[in-house]
């Protein structure tokens, strides 16, 4: 598993983010790749590396086959969760979940910045993301419409 995030959000006992910290020298440093079974994760990462207009995270099988999760500039965060005892079709399996995000967990409570624009504010969906084989170029960026501003709203309108 490879995630380019240079920082992550440590969690407290209740799984609430307690701030941001560098991944350098920690067990959650996935920038150079790490075997999935060695990663006990429930972590959000940010300060991701932008490659060909997208943030990319990768899962690679022992055979070399791989899948890449990508998100455009609006998806500046990725959540990674591992579960060593997931009930699978053939018994207990190791599971991984990777989710591109426009903001870290608990952003509304902490005031953390959101990378994407809310559809309610901008009038158009925020960002695009997907799953593809490694090296696949993401679809062309769609043209962004200017924000729709409701003159009576507090967001972007008169105070």
Précis, in short:
With 159 residues, the chain is mainly beta. It is built from 2 helices and 10 strands; from the N terminus they run βββββββββααβ.
Describe the protein's architecture and organization.
The protein is mostly beta strands. The protein has a single domain, classed as Beta-galactosidase, Chain A, domain 5. Helix content is 5%, strand content 33%. The protein is built from 2 helices and 10 strands, in the order βββββββββααβ. It has helices at 107-110, 119-122, and strands at 2-3, 7-8, 21-22, 42-46, 50-51, 54-60, 66-71, 77-88, 91-101, 129-132. The strands form 2 sheets. Strands 1, 5, 6, 7 and 10 form a 5-stranded antiparallel beta sheet that branches. A 5-stranded antiparallel beta sheet has the order 3-2-4-8-9, with no helix packed on it. Strand 8 and strand 9 (91-101) form a beta hairpin. The longest helix is centred in the last third of the chain and has 4 residues, at 107-110. InterPro entries: Gal_mutarotase_sf_dom, GH-type_carb-bd. Residues 134-159 are annotated as: Disordered.
Write the SSE topology.
Elements: E1 2-3, E2 7-8, E3 21-22, E4 42-46, E5 50-51, E6 54-60, E7 66-71, E8 77-88, E9 91-101, H1 107-110, H2 119-122, E10 129-132
Antiparallel strand pairs: 1-6, 2-3, 2-4, 4-8, 5-6, 6-7, 7-10, 8-9
Give the averaged pLDDT, no decimals: 80
Number of domains: 1
| Contiguous runs where pLDDT drops below 50 for at least 5 residues | 145-159
> Tally the helices: what do you get?
2
Helix content: under 10%
Distance between the termini: 47 Å
> Largest sheet, described in full?
5 strands, antiparallel
- In total, the number of strands is 10
The secondary-structure element order is: EEEEEEEEEHHE
Global outline: globular
């Amino acid at each position: 598993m490879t995630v380019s995030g240079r920082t992550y959000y440590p969690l407290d006992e209740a799984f609430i983010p307690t701030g941001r910290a560098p991944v350098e020298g920690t067990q959650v440093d996935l920038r150079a790749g790490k075997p999935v079974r060695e990663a006990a994760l429930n972590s959000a990462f940010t300060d991701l590396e932008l490659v060909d207009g997208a943030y990319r995270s990768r899962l690679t099988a022992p055979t070399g086959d791989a899948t890449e999760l990508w998100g455009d500039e609006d998806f500046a965060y990725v959540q990674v969760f591992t579960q060593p005892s997931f009930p699978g079709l053939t018994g207990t399996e190791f599971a991984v979940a990777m989710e591109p995000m426009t903001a870290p967990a608990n952003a509304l409570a902490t005031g953390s910045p959101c990378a994407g624009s809310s559809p309610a504010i901008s009038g158009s969906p925020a960002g695009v993301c997907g799953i593809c084989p490694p090296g696949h170029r993401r679809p062309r960026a769609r043209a962004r419409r200017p924000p729709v501003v409701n003159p009576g709203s507090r967001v972007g309108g008169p105070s």
